[in-house]
Write a structure and sequence with these properties.
The chain has helices at about 1-15, 60-75, 75-95, 140-210, 215-250, 270-275, 280-300, 345-415, 420-450; strands spanning about 100-115, 125-135, 305-315, 330-340. By secondary structure, the protein is of the alpha+beta class. The longest helix is centred in the C-terminal third of the chain and has 68 residues, at about 345-415.
Length: about 475
């Protein structure tokens, strides 16, 4: 009889079915094409592709390369995400452990008197050694659904780690380029301040010679004071950006923002499906939907009885010397069945809560895909339009520079006032600042475009 029972249990395991709906990836309705680029759309397949390493090499910036190497090691937010991933992996191991029996052992030694009403009690010794095993027969898939949910959460956590790494790398690149841009603006303002100071000296000399008026001198002095204030403001911005880089890098030294901005790289020109398949945040949202679906089945198993197979064996004797003799052996083997008969609707509420959690996860997944679609559209438009703006700004700068040169010549000839020169100087400074800003915006848009594409940089082409 016992052998038949032992053979019957694995049969129950093999024929059991898991409660709850089987998971299917949610569908997302999207336009067939990007309006900003060619290519057909097909539903994303999260997790099919990995974020490529060192995607920032497309900017050909050696200092950025060194910073990116540091940030993945020392950034504290990434350490948090990594620890969360390790915890998720441990949760999978914990859920998988339920597939195996739980075995416990015990040893006991005691001496006592049983007592009695009409006679004195007898003092006796008791010694025992025992081991017991308990194994849940997963008839309804409670264990399997638990493992499925834990595995999906672990996969989502891995994608979260990849997304956090990508976001941190992109933020570092943007901050570094902004620091470089601010350093360039600071150098520009210092050169402008030197030019304003020279113009002030010229105006004072002309005033001493009786050619320029006191108003000309006052206007030139105002221009110099304003330039000094702009230099101080730019120094503050440089300091704040340097501090932000220090935090991103987890402490340590931050290089000076020397040198010019790198050339704007070509923007990726891929099929839209390939863009979004690279995004780890989409993969994470899809895996969380899978975990929520498994949670429905896990909640539904509470309606069914819990079948356990228990076994125990041991030794028990009143004398330690006789503990290992044959008559001291004890054992038991048998199944147990337990089921909740009434819970006031708690199980139904738990199932409904799980279904609501699944609907929420599906909506979050779809919204993540839609947002990704919008972000790619936005950055494709930014890459295209900022390229045109940069060309227009270069023309504006060239025109402002010619206007300033003409104004200075006419001022020396005495045909115009100092105000005209100051106006031309201000216009040239603004044009140069705008030129630097546009170049930074193009670099920032390129970073965001690569980030929103999941870091993809292969097969790129969009003129820079």
């Amino acid at each position: 009889m016992r052998s038949r029972l032992i053979l019957f249990i694995p049969l129950l395991w093999l024929t059991a079915c898991a409660s709850g709906p089987d998971y299917r990836r949610p569908e997302v309705k999207l336009p067939e094409h990007f309006s900003e680029a060619g290519g057909e759309w097909r539903s994303a397949r999260p997790g099919e592709l990995k974020v490529p390493e060192r995607w920032w090499n497309v900017f050909a910036d050696s200092e950025l390369d060194r910073l990116e190497t540091r940030v993945v090691i020392d950034n504290q937010s990434l350490k948090v995400a990594e620890a969360q991933y390790r915890a998720a992996l441990a949760a999978v191991d914990s859920a998988a452990a339920a597939r195996l029996p739980t075995v416990t052992g015990a040893a006991n030694a005691s001496r006592g008197n049983s007592g009695g009403v009409t006679a004195s009690g007898v003092t006796a010794n008791s010694f025992s050694l025992s081991a017991s095993a308990n194994w849940e027969i997963d008839l309804w898939g409670r264990v399997r659904r638990g493992i499925e949910a834990a595995q999906a959460r672990a996969e989502a956590s891995a994608d979260d780690l990849a997304a956090a790494r990508l976001s941190t790398q992109a933020l570092l690149a943007q901050t570094w380029f902004q620091l470089r841009s601010t350093g360039m603006q600071q150098q520009l303002l210092q050169r402008s301040l030197a030019a304003d100071a020279r113009f002030l000296d010229l105006t004072r000399n002309r005033h001493d010679a009786g050619v320029a008026s006191g108003l000309d001198v006052a206007q030139a002095e105002s221009q110099v004071a304003g330039a000094r204030a702009q230099v101080s403001a730019m120094e503050l911005q440089c300091a704040q950006l340097s501090h932000a880089l220090t935090v991103l890098l987890g402490g340590g030294e931050v290089p000076a923002a020397a040198g010019s901005l790198p050339a704007v790289p070509a923007a990726p020109a891929l099929l839209p499906s390939a863009w979004l398949e690279r995004r780890p945040d989409i993969a994470s949202a899809e895996r969380l939907a899978a975990a929520a679906n498994a949670q429905i089945g896990l909640a539904q198993t509470a309606y069914f009885p819990l079948l356990d197979l228990g076994a125990s064996a041991g030794l028990r004797s009143g004398a330690l010397s006789q503990l290992f003799n044959a008559p001291s052996r004890i054992w038991s083997l048998g199944p147990s069945l337990a089921m909740t008969l009434f819970d006031g609707g708690a199980r139904g509420a738990a199932v409904e809560q799980a279904r609501a959690g699944y609907d929420q996860a599906v909506a979050t997944y779809r919204q993540t895909v839609l947002t990704a679609f919008q972000e790619v559209q936005d950055n494709l438009a930014a890459a295209r339009l900022l390229e045109h703006e940069a060309a227009d700004q270069d023309q504006a700068l060239a025109a402002a520079r010619r206007a300033r040169e003409i104004a200075e010549e006419q001022y020396r000839a005495g045909t115009i006032s100092a105000l005209n020169v100051i106006t031309a100087l201000t216009a040239e400074l603004a044009a140069e600042q705008n030129s630097i800003n546009v170049q930074y915006q193009r670099l920032a848009a390129s970073v965001l475009l690569l980030k929103n594409a999941g870091g993809r940089v292969e097969e790129t082409r969009l003129g820079g």
